[in-house]
Predict the 3D structure of the following.
Amino acid sequence: MAEERRPKQCTVVLPTESMKAMAESIGVGQLQEESCAALSEEVSYRIKEIAQDALKFMHHGKRCKLTTSDIDHALKLKNVEPLYGFQSQEFIPFRFASGGGRELHFYEEKEVDLSDIINTPLPRVPLDVSLKAHWLSIEGVQPAIPENPPPAPKEQQKTESTEPLKAVKPGQEEEGSIQKGQGATSAEAKGKKDGLMRMKPRSTHELSVEQQLYYKEITEACVGSCEAKRAEALQSIATDPGLYQMLPRFSTFISEGVRVNVVQNNLALLIYLMRMVKALMDNPTLYLEKYLHELIPAVVTCIVSKQLCLRPDVDNHWALRDFAARLMAQSCKTFSTTTNNIQSRITKTFTKSWLDDKTQWTTRYGCIAGLSELGPDVSCAFVSCTLEEMFSPHSKHCASVIAKARPLPDNVEQYRADYGYLGPMLCSHVVKARNHTHHHTASAHPNGVSERNRRVRGVPYRQHHQGTQLPHPHVHPTRHPNTAIAPGNQVHRHGNQLRIIFHPAGTVDGSFVVFVFFEIVTKTIVFKSINTIHSVLLHSPDIVPVKGLDTYSFKAFYFYYFLHCRIIVKTSNLTHMESCSNQKSVKQINIFYI
Amino acid sequence: MAAVQDGQLNMEVEKDIKTEITNDGSGNINANSSSPGSTSSGGKSKSPAGSGEDQQTLLAVLQFLKRNKLTESVDILRREAGLSADADDSPVSDSAGAGSGGVPNVSADGGDANSLLSRVSIATPFAPPATAPPKVVAASGGEDQPDVNVVLSAYSQQGDPVLYPLYYNGLKKFIESVLDCHRAELSQVFYPLFVHMYLELVYNNHENEAKQFFEKFSGDQECYYEEDLRILSSMSKKEHMKGNETMLDFRTSKFVLRISRDSYQLLKRHLQERQNNQIWNIIQEHLYIDIFDGMPRSKSQIDAMSGSLAGEGKRDANKAKVFYGLLKEPEIEVPLDDEDEEAENEEGKPKKKKPKKDSMGSKSKKQDPNAPQQTRIPLPELKDSDKLDKIMNMKEATKKIRLGPDNLPSICFYSFLNAYQGLTAVDFTDDSSLIAGGFADSTVRVWSVTPKKLRRVKSAADLSNIDKESDDVLERIMDEKTASESKILYGHSGPVYGISFSPDRNYLLSSSEDGTVRLWSLQTFTCLVGYKGHNYPVWDTQFSPYGYYFISGGHDRVARLWATDHYQPLRMFAGHLADITCTLFHPNSNYVATGSADRTIRLWDVLTGNCVRILTGHKGPIHSLAFSPNGKFMASGATDGRVLLWDVGHGLMVGELKGHTDTIYALKFSRDGEILASGSMDNTVKLWDTLKAFDDVELDDFTAATGHIHLPENSQELLLGTYMTKSTPVIHLHFTRRNLLLAAGAYNP
């Protein structure tokens, strides 16, 4: 009882202005200020009194909404004539008027033409009260029928699974095996008290015939060949409120399906199964916490598996990885708690295989995709350590670029301001590079920065991610003030080349500076945001050539990817990826970093 | 009908009450039972005051007639009024003299009217109120409504307003510095002290000081006083204090605190050392400190019991013996039902039924030592139809499901569709064949939930035509043309807040905002009687389990006991400090329980009219009550979402069931009392294990004597199930004879 809900005191008093206005409305002209003050106090007090009485009528009327009739009854109680004919169905539309330095809110009373009322057709007679019976519970179990609310609302499922001791006993699930965890804990609690353990039998919950049919139809449609049917089935999974009891079956279906199809490299089926996971997650009435032990391995498999399809060169298994990564991120966001530590466990898994040199490049890609979807915080935390150890040896590579991009003079303090702690080091490199470029001019860099002359337009640094909801700027609104557009970012277009220059002002803390450079052949692509580029790059099969990259370049690509998470910030023109030049749409992806 | 007083007397008494009630707002009445021997001579007892006033008028008329020499009229009037000649002669002559001013009058100082009144009440020993003890029992704390001015004058003594915060602060510091074991107890003083200091400031026109005082210290008060504080804060002028009911309550009733002797001594010593007379005066005048010997109570113990408008019930208020046992069931031969027997034979357990019946029979033969005498209050005789019903009941009872934690009841929910937020009350008949609903549009609707349709009795003309000797005369009197599933009863002129079926299903009671209770016939579907007595909304009404009597309670804070064939109440139960929100008969019909917005539950003895229990502990207006079938326990639910369990015999709180998040409007024990079902505005029905709840409480002699009970925190273990409805607040619950739970509420899309 000690919760500190302090009383809202009614010390508010009607303004004296209102008193004057009211007095004038009944023909009392000059009202003294003092009388107004006295009146307003009195009136406020009486109004409060009436409101308190009206509340009684509301309580006895078994409502939670105060109505005008409650006020009427309260007035009657005080022997005051009620307000006749005051009917308001919706809200009371007070109008505002001002003039002569006075402000007034009034209730507009329109003159009504009686003939209008007479001539309007009568409203439909409201339906009469009727009585309908249904089973709220049958021997302690609530049947899943339309008259009952969807079994186990999400909050309840959540409290049950995350805080089983606090959870309100749901009653309807007590008998079901789906409540094993919860049932066991309550039994434990009882056991402690009684000194003996009372365990509920772990009989599996029987599905009704209808539910079995539904399950069969849905699963067949989900993995079948008809796209329209699949869409319908997924829609049903995503919206139906009564799936709670079938959840264990779906979960097993998905996990088994992934297990089998990964071995068989059946990309299509894997995609279908992932879409099922997505649909389950989208269902507002389901809380998947208890099934994560089956679902997460399935999803992670789809992210990091070495091979997901028969012809990795042609099939777009990247899309599946991305999609699964987004699912992973979503489930981390929804289900990660301090107890299950999903997020940190997943992150650790990803990082470990990413940093392992023996890992296949497809897996690496998955790891990065997964990590980057987890949001800027995770990316920062895990990249910063890796970056630091990699930065120093390579910083000289970009020095020459900066040398070209930056105007003189090279002031250490200025560098520090622009590039964070890397500034001083960069500065010294740039100074060296400037001396060096005098000899080499643009020959080392065929698509040199010097050609950069036409500014296309500034690009928004980051836009809202389409599709799966991920940590967005609004999640950390204070941390990234420059998310909308970093003023220094520029896109330069030159023939087939598109160079995007990100300004360090847009970085997380100005510490990381990485150079990215694109040369893209297609003319039709309009780059609106990093997102677009990201999707173009990743969803096109052109990523495949990355396979041929050496470790060094590959890591460079990582950073490109993290650009998506706002870490990478500057472009340059250093070429390092000859192997991808045979591709059609993307001629070169040049990535560099310091 | 021996114990029930005749109508005449009760009419008198009731009139008296009514005048008081209607007058208490204006503060003009002079009867004041709490200050005997004060201003008016009519204050000696309340009852003569009312009759006296009539007499007084009469005598004044006589006097007038005499002065004008209309002796004939005088004689007639005297004859009709039944006044003896010498009863009025002397006063009349006296006052006539006083009126003319010729003869010096002995009672001149008292004024003519007063002297008249006093003489009349003395001179008319045969006046009914003087002979019979007044039936209205002013319960402790209630003391009815004394003159406002008298009450307010208690505040006229005042200190320096600037010092009030200092006094309060000083006490606060002191209480914060005392030992832990005393602190919780002494902290109880804060709230009443705060209220009275604030009111004293307001009364003496220190508006600003009062506001400051309120702002400064209102935050310290327990959160369950929030509502009262809100009302208090709106009151900032002396004028507001007149006619404010809440305020009157604070004053007229002493706030009751229970404090151990040690703590009290500590407080007393402190106040005397500091010469803190201001606080000491308030404590003396407005607080009733119930001192007990023994261990000081802990914070949780105090919190469990406090929260009501006027503090806790005094310990001696709950000392009276309550016969909570059940009445002996009349012995009725249960005819062996052949069909049933055969059916059981087929199932191969033919022997099962007999021993059961024997056990039931023996049970009812034993006289429960805690039961009241069978004839303690006169009960209506059983009719043949009642006996048939009893037999049906017993038969059904043999098919009753034994409920328990492992065997939860099925719940059938009756949703009222298209009620447009207008459903205000619901009741089921005991045999679950009919449902009645009270609506905000003043109608009462009755539905039949069995295939048997509702039919009206034929009109008188048609009835005369039927053969009265035929066997199926009861069938024949019904008009087939009127058969329908539901019937609407029109008659009230305000929302119907309470509804109750008679046990024999022939009548229906409804109470309404219009201040009446109506009795409807379910044979003719017409209104039979409108019981007028409450001038204000009647929040609830309830039939006795044996029929005939019923109780009603409402905004006028008085619960009335009626008999269906009397148009005046038989008993009036006054004592609550705020609206009576719910009423309930004890299963043995000898007691009634009333729950109130003053956050107390009172149990009244129907025979004597005394308040025998005051149960405090709720933190909000009580909206539902339920007795366990054995009559030993009671459950109550309030707006605070908690269900409290009470031991009626000891007058103790024995359990607290937390779980609901909104007002509990419905409570019901299963037929065997093993399960308590609660329904609430939060759209849930919850089932509680009451057997365990009552078992868990350790009642030793000490706790029973002092009432200081440690409530186990076991709501979670006791909760057997929660069933959400689809946005349908649950406003009524009912266990059928076979222990199927029926729930009802209006669907609010």
In short: Confidence is low (pLDDT under 50) at residues 1-50, 85-146, 338-364 of chain B. The longest helix of chain B spans residues 46-67.
